[in-house]
């Protein structure tokens, strides 16, 4: 236990994290590519066409993992933000803030693929379905966090303020979702049931889960890469960055 | 815990430093301020005097080092009510009269016995201006209205940022009188000034902040 | 030497903010005029057809009030920040959440209350059925304090930024979705003659929660934004 705590403490120091993240990132990226290739092959080639939706359903291999990631990344951002606020750890601030653009991108992909899927399925690009609407609100929440982060001059203060906003958002997110579902049942006309994952065939399920795994690995790799860059930018004046720059320049 | 000896400094800082975006603003510096003492913080524009005062007031977190207030590590709650910060912005509402401004202040910070906002206004040389909206006062008169807080609040530690700015000769004498009376009562004061010309107390110690390159 | 009591300090903050608003009472007209003008634009955009306007009247009034409050929100802390009063408040030997709660209350009284007063006028102009008027008022009375409290937390976070108007909209509006949904849901249920108490109770529950949590969050946010 003690060694674990010590390890985390060491990892929290910027130079250690920089080296650690640099070493880990290629592996995560490779795993993401591998899982992505297998998942896409399984999903686009091996899995049979749906008896109702034909080949159009195959967009779920992108859509559903993105949708899962959009919430997962928000949770990661909130946890890192909480750590940043309570213990004022610079690395946690950076991790929380670098989660936001990745999460916003996943959310955006979810909305776009959902809309692409909606056109052949529902005959419309957009419908005020409870899930899509909640996802749209989630995108706004991400954009609010990013907007606040870049509106404040002092990087550390900006990160703390934006992390606080992310926490306010995570308290509100279930309420937003609940209210949107309630609103949706109130206006029955526009509800369209999406294929539930409960009656999904195993030949479709395993590529889906593989893609979800690929998305997680990609998120890890992307986060580490972004955090490394942000760390260099913020620690620009520190000795370890100077030493690093000299080593790079000399090589 | 043992209680601190009476000679212990009211405010003490060791290795105190502050950085903004990793650019050092001041420090590391040590300072000790005892009861009945006045410390003049000198330095050029941009040397971090105001930032130092804001850190000591608890408005900014110290980047490094330790601050002790009355023998214990500084906490916001410990400072509340015992310290008074007079910043560059005076915190006066222009649409309210001097008296209304001071009444609001007294409700928040408490009031020294035997003194009322009206009496304090007379003492800072604003007699007859008490009901005037602050908007109509000159810069020096506004400063005097803010200085009336020093008379009213029962605070032991004064943190005064440029109290001499905008004041005429009589106003400068007033600040010096207020500081002398405060020291005589056993209060401590930290005063910033970019030029020590206005300050008269020869016994006061000086702390010089140097401009960071 | 006697320190001020907390109750006296709260009363003083409330009294001062109301007095300031009274001295500049012309400013209170701006949100009201704004709401009036925005609500007037809808018939121009949609056509003056009574049935259509009656159907969307509640929604227009709610969104208009929300936007008017959003515009007024920036004034909650900015003047105090600019003249240094906010520092005095932060350093005061009083519980900050309570003092901020008083500021939020004063802000609600001076900006939201006038909007609630003219809401029946707006609703009548848009032909909202009479039986829904009372429900609309109830929804506004429960919903607007909720918006003020939520808005105060977010505007506190932007206290250190310049020109925060659009940013505040981006931050606040997604979080107001539940308020709009429940308030509008209650009114449309009343219009249809259906039970409308449940959404109002949800608003009430959220308000009770926000009354406790928002001042605390607002104080924390302000300390983050001002580094205090």
From TrEMBL, chain A:
Transmembrane segments annotated in the record for this chain: 27-47, 67-87, 99-118, 130-152, 164-184, 204-224
Organism superkingdom: Bacteria
Bilayer topology: Multi-pass membrane protein
Pfam families, per database record: Cytochrom_C_asm (PF01578)
Swiss-Prot/TrEMBL keywords: Cell inner membrane, Cell membrane, Cytochrome c-type biogenesis, Membrane, Transmembrane, Transmembrane helix, Transport
Family annotation (PANTHER family): CYTOCHROME B_B6 PROTEIN-RELATED, HEME EXPORTER PROTEIN C
Family indicated by similarity: Belongs to the CcmC/CycZ/HelC family.
Protein name as it appears in the record: Heme exporter protein C
Automatic annotation (TrEMBL), chain B:
One Pfam match: ABC_tran
Domain ABC transporter: 11-213
SUPFAM superfamilies the record matches: P-loop containing nucleoside triphosphate hydrolases
GO molecular function: ATP binding; ATP hydrolysis activity; transmembrane transporter activity
Keyword set, alphabetical order: ATP-binding, Cytochrome c-type biogenesis, Membrane, Nucleotide-binding, Translocase, Transport
Source organism, top-level taxon: Bacteria
PROSITE patterns reported in the protein's UniProt record: ABC_TRANSPORTER_1, ABC_TRANSPORTER_2
GO biological process, one term: cytochrome complex assembly
Protein name: Cytochrome C biogenesis protein CcmA
Originating organism: Mizugakiibacter sediminis
From TrEMBL, chain C:
Family per record: Belongs to the CcmB/CycW/HelB family.
Record organism: Mizugakiibacter sediminis
Subcellular location: Cell inner membrane
PANTHER family for the chain: CYTOCHROME C BIOGENESIS B-RELATED, HEME EXPORTER PROTEIN B
GO molecular function, one term: heme transmembrane transporter activity
Gene Ontology cellular-component annotations: plasma membrane
Record-level GO BP terms: cytochrome c biosynthetic process; cytochrome complex assembly
Annotated TM spans: 28-46, 52-77, 98-123, 135-159, 166-188, 200-226
Function: Required for the export of heme to the periplasm for the biogenesis of c-type cytochromes.
Highest taxon of source: Bacteria
Protein name: Heme exporter protein B
Keywords attached to this entry: Cell inner membrane, Cell membrane, Cytochrome c-type biogenesis, Membrane, Transmembrane, Transmembrane helix, Transport
Pfam families according to UniProt: CcmB
Membrane-protein topology: Multi-pass membrane protein
InterPro entries: Cyt_c_biogenesis_CcmB (IPR003544), Cyt_c_CcmB_bac (IPR026031)
């Amino acid at each position: 236990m003690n060694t674990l705590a010590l390890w985390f403490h060491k990892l929290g120091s910027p130079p250690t994290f920089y080296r650690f993240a640099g070493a880990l990132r290629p592996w995560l990226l490779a795993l993401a590519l591998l899982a992505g290739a297998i998942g896409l092959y399984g999903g686009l080639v091996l899995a049979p066409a749906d008896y109702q939706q034909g080949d159009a359903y195959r967009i779920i291999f992108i859509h559903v993992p993105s949708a899962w990631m959009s919430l997962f990344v928000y949770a990661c951002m909130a946890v890192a933000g909480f750590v940043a606020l309570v213990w004022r750890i610079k690395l946690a601030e950076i991790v929380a803030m670098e989660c936001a653009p990745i999460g916003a991108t996943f959310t955006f992909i979810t909305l776009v693929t959902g809309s692409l899927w909606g056109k052949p399925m529902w005959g419309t690009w957009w419908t005020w379905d409870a899930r899509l609407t909640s996802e749209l609100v989630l995108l706004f929440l991400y954009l609010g966090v990013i907007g606040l982060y870049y509106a404040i001059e002092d990087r550390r203060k900006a990160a703390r303020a934006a992390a606080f906003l992310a926490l306010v958002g995570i308290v509100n997110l279930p309420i937003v979702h609940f209210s949107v579902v309630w609103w949706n049942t109130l206006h029955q006309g526009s509800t369209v049931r999406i294929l539930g994952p409960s009656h999904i065939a195993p030949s479709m399920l395993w590529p889906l889960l593989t893609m979800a795994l690929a998305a997680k690995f990609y998120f890890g790799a992307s986060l580490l890469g972004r955090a490394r860059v942000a760390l260099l930018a913020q620690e620009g004046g520190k000795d370890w960055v100077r030493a690093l720059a000299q080593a790079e320049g000399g090589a | 815990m043992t209680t601190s000896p009476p000679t212990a400094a009211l405010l003490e800082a060791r290795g105190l430093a502050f950085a903004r975006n990793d650019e050092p603003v001041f420090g590391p510096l040590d300072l000790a301020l005892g009861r009945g003492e006045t410390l003049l913080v000198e330095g050029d524009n941009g040397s971090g005097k105001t930032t130092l005062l804001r850190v000591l007031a608890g408005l900014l977190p110290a980047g490094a080092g330790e601050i002790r207030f009355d023998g214990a590590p500084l906490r916001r709650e410990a400072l509340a009510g015992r310290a008074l910060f007079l910043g560059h912005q005076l915190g006066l509402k222009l649409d309210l009269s001097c008296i209304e401004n001071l009444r609001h202040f007294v409700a928040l910070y408490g009031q020294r016995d035997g003194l009322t906002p009206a009496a304090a206004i007379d003492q800072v040389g604003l007699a007859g201006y008490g009901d005037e909206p602050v908007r109509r006062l000159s810069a020096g008169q506004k400063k005097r209205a803010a200085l009336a807080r020093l008379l009213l609040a029962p605070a032991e530690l004064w943190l005064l940022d440029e109290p001499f700015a905008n004041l005429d000769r009589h106003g400068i004498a007033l600040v010096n009188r207020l500081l002398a009376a405060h020291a005589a009562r056993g209060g401590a004061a930290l005063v910033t000034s970019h030029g020590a010309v206005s300050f008269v107390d020869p016994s006061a110690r000086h702390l010089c902040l140097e401009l960071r390159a | 030497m006697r320190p001020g009591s907390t109750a006296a300090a709260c009363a003083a903050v409330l009294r001062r903010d109301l007095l300031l608003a009274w001295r500049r009472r012309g400013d209170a007209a701006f949100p009201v005029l704004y709401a009036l003008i925005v609500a007037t634009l809808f018939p121009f955009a949609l056509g003056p057809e009574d049935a259509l306007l009656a159907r969307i009247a509640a929604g227009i009034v709610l969104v208009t009030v929300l936007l008017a409050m959003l515009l007024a929100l920036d004034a909650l802390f900015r003047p105090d920040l600019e003249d240094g009063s906010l520092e005095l408040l932060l350093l005061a030997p009083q519980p900050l959440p309570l003092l901020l709660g008083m500021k939020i209350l004063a802000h609600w009284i001076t900006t939201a209350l006038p909007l609630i007063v003219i809401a029946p006028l707006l609703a009548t102009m848009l032909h909202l059925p009479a039986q829904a008027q009372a429900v609309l008022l109830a929804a506004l009375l429960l919903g607007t304090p909720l918006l003020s409290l939520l808005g105060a937390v977010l505007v506190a976070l932007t206290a250190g930024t310049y020109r925060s108007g659009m940013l505040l909209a981006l931050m606040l509006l997604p979080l107001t979705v539940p308020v709009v949904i429940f308030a509008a849901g209650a009114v449309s249920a009343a219009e249809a003659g259906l039970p409308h108490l449940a959404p109002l109770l949800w608003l009430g529950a959220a308000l009770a929660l926000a009354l406790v949590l928002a001042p605390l969050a607002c104080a924390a946010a302000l300390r983050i934004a001002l580094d205090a």
